[in-house]
Design goal:
Blueprint lengths: L6 E2 L1 H6 L18 E2 L2 E10 L4 H10 L3 E6 L4 E7 L3 H6 L4 E6 L2 E4 L29 H5 L2 H7 L7 E5 L20 E2 L33 H10 L15 E6 L6 E3 H13 L4 E4 L2 E2 L14 H23 L3 E5 L12 E5 L8 E4 L14 E7 L18 E4 L15 E4 L2 H6 L14 E4 L6 E8 H19 L1 E2 L5 E2 L2 H11 L10 E6 L2 E6 L2 E2 L2 E2 L9 H6 L3
Parallel strand pairs: 8-10, 8-12, 9-10, 12-14, 14-17, 17-18
Antiparallel strand pairs: 1-21, 2-3, 3-5, 3-6, 4-5, 7-11, 7-13, 15-16, 19-21, 20-21, 22-23, 24-25, 26-27
Helix pairs in contact: 6-10, 7-8, 10-11
Protein name: S8 family serine peptidase
InterPro entries: Peptidase_S8/S53_dom (IPR000209), Peptidase_S8/S53_dom_sf (IPR036852), Peptidase_S8_Asp-AS (IPR023827), Peptidase_S8_His-AS (IPR022398), Peptidase_S8_Ser-AS (IPR023828), Peptidase_S8_subtilisin-like (IPR050131), Peptidase_S8_subtilisin-rel (IPR015500)
Family: Belongs to the peptidase S8 family.
Length: about 550
């Protein structure tokens, strides 16, 4: 079953409701296999600075064995028994966290089935690309004007750490860097309980090509960032920059810890300027170091997620990567969490209710050094689904809200590229190629047809901020020693905030959302310069390419 994540569809709103790099697990001896001594599993063992040898000894004493190591991020990938291994290793003072190599995130790109046929809802033609009239989001942040003045530089590299990118899509291919793209994911047909996860493998060794996206989420994100100006479909926020697929998400939309760490480290190593992380952390909605409701093994796992992701973020930032994250879609004030009844969210059916507080972290949205983005609907209000918080929200951006107005309309959501094969598999395209609903749009202006889909979510908001950050690097970046441009992430962050359009809290601050007879009240704290709904303000592409810092 899919879970609502950083990217949601209008349908969800209506209801209000891994391996060493390049090495499939089944090809590695004694990894997550049944060996002498019982069932085994892969673990990521994070050690304190300078304590690698002691941590390795702890692994050995607990009956485990080293598979590989990443000294950049300070962890050992080990195989050990499924019962008792984590607690035994975690009892050593040299170890700061232990986690099974399991899901830490999820992204969705489900088709919307609740709207009338495509011919019923129409958007006016506007100057620019054929579908520009449908891009209210680009007009909201001035990207339509910014495109003409500064579309971004090909020397700027943007990593999409997601479910993949359809690099063959006509409205992505011109900006797609296949040579630098990597897939750190091995498809997993079934989860550890034998339930379907990714389904049958499409490629040899269950390793998809670097230009493939079997979920659609990553393609939508990439398109919003940098679909080119080429007379096809839409234009992204920064249509002149390069896109690199640094895949960390499964076909099913789940994100496992090791691929996420590998992806961030790789982004730093190849000179990425901006990285977009539009995924919702799971299995722990809130990661708590020592919650009494959790077992020692569960505490160690949450410590590992917080530690590992922070180390990977720090590593990438030191290499010059600005990191942008979706804030989340739980309609929650992240500064005042009280109950988490959705964790652990993997495998399915494992969740339990537990008390939480503000010491528990939503990762990566609350990790240090991450720019976290809330979502707005077309009226400019914070989207009903978007998480918020005066400590957590850095900036706001269009994320879509199909319910932002009377009734629900697909055209209030964010339109971006979608892989044709994903839409066909979901039954959203007929045998004749025609879309089956208003959530899918086809453009055949240049002969060959390309497809686009409307989606809502903070997953859709984050790439708007990522695109603006890429424009800032294009404008203010300096030549890097190895080629391309570079700009310190702290400077990018400062410029992004300075160029944002400040938005005050609504009046009254207790904003009431009324959706089909249901109400939700979200309270906005802070002032115009920095508040829980909008952070430092709405990102502004036009200001980014014109203002004087």
């Amino acid at each position: 079953m899919r879970r609502v994540a950083s990217g949601v569809t209008a349908l969800a709103l209506l209801g209000l409701a891994a391996c060493a790099p390049g090495t499939p697990a089944e090809q590695r001896p004694q990894s997550a296999q049944t060996q002498a001594g019982g069932p085994r599993a892969d673990y990521l063992v994070f050690y304190a600075e300078g304590r690698q040898r002691q941590a390795l000894d702890a692994v050995t004493h607990a009956g485990g064995a080293k598979v590989s190591e990443d000294a950049r991020l300070g962890y050992i990938l080990a195989t050990g028994g499924r019962d008792g291994f984590a607690e035994a290793v975690g009892g050593d003072a040299a170890v700061v966290g232990v986690s099974r190599d399991r899901s830490i995130g999820h992204a969705t790109a489900e088709p919307v089935r609740s709207f009338p046929d495509a011919g019923v809802l129409k958007a006016g033609r506007a100057a620019g690309e054929p579908l520009a009239g449908r891009q209210w989001d680009m007009r909201m942040i001035g990207a339509d004007r910014a495109n003409a003045k500064n579309p971004g530089s090909k020397d700027v590299l943007v990593a999409v750490i997601d479910t993949g990118i359809d690099g063959k899509h006509p409205d992505i291919a011109p900006n797609f860097d296949r040579a630098l793209s990597r897939n750190f994911v091995t498809d997993r047909p079934k989860d550890e309980n034998g339930e379907t996860l990714d389904g049958p493998c499409e490629a040899a060794g269950c390793k998809d090509p670097v230009d493939q996206d079997d979920d659609g989420h990553g393609t939508h994100v990439a398109s919003t960032i940098a679909s080119p100006i080429n007379g096809i479909g839409i234009a992204g926020v920064a249509p002149g920059v390069r896109l690199v697929n640094v895949r960390a998400g499964q076909d099913s939309g789940f994100f496992f810890l090791k691929p996420s760490l590998d992806a961030l480290a790789y982004a730093g190593d190849i000179g990425v300027d901006v990285a977009n992380l539009s995924y919702y952390v799971d299995p722990w909605l809130f990661n708590c170091a020592r919650n009494p409701a959790d077992s020692r093994k569960e505490q160690l796992e949450q410590q590992a997620i917080v530690t590992g992701m922070q180390r990977a973020i720090d590593y990438a930032r030191k290499k010059g990567v600005t990191i942008v994250s979706a804030l989340g879609n739980g309609s929650t004030d992240l500064g005042r969490p009280t109950v988490d009844d959705k964790s652990p969210g993997y495998p399915e059916g494992s969740a339990k209710a537990r008390k939480v507080d503000n010491t528990c972290l939503n990762v990566p949205a609350e990790s240090d050094g991450v720019i976290s983005v809330s979502a707005l609907g077309p009226s400019g209000r914070k989207a009903v689904y978007s998480d918020y918080g005066v400590e957590q929200t850095d900036v706001a951006a269009p994320g879509g809200d199909a319910t932002d107005g009377k009734g629900a309309k697909a055209t209030r959501s964010i339109l971006a590229a979608a892989p044709e094969h994903v839409l066909r598999a979901a039954g959203r395209i007929g045998a004749d190629g025609a879309p089956k609903g208003a959530d899918v749009v086809r453009d055949c202006t240049r002969g060959a047809c390309s497809y686009y889909q409307y989606l809502d979510g903070t997953s859709m908001a984050a790439p708007h901020a990522t695109g603006v950050a890429a424009l800032l690097v294009s404008r203010f970046g300096k030549p890097a020693p190895g080629g391309g441009l570079t700009l310190d992430p702290a400077t990018v962050e400062k410029l992004l905030y300075a160029s944002a359009d400040p938005k005050p809290c609504p009046t009254p601050r207790q904003h009431v959302y009324q959706i089909y007879g249901q109400t939700q009240t979200h309270v906005c704290e802070g002032d115009t310069a920095d508040n829980g709904f909008y952070g430092h303000g709405l990102v502004d592409a036009w200001k980014a390419v014109t203002f004087t810092p």
